[in-house]
Request: fold
Amino acid sequence: QVQLGESGGGLVQAGGSLRLSCAAAGNIFSVSAMGWYRQAPGKQRELVATITRDGNTNYVDSVKGRFTISRDNAKNTVTLQMNSLKPEDTAVYYCHAVIATMAQIGDIRAMDYWGKGTLVTVSS
Reply:
């Protein structure tokens, strides 16, 4: 069984910073892509940033230059440093990871896992 645990959300004024962290735990064989998504009230969930195991990153245009995603492969963690926050960044942020587990020798399966979400509120 695998779980993603998030931390770091909260209330911040516009222009401020927050750091989100997510840790994968459980019967993990390997972790490939990790990332953060967000869902604002009344809107669809959108990709914020992703990072491959090799460290290649991808960002939605609206956060480029303000957010930085990083990961620690040894600890199976991913972090999102958010600077120069804007009110439009207000959303529930979800951690995502593609994780392979091995139920028995030779039986390796990769699945998408999601955290429960952490609320980020940016006041104007």
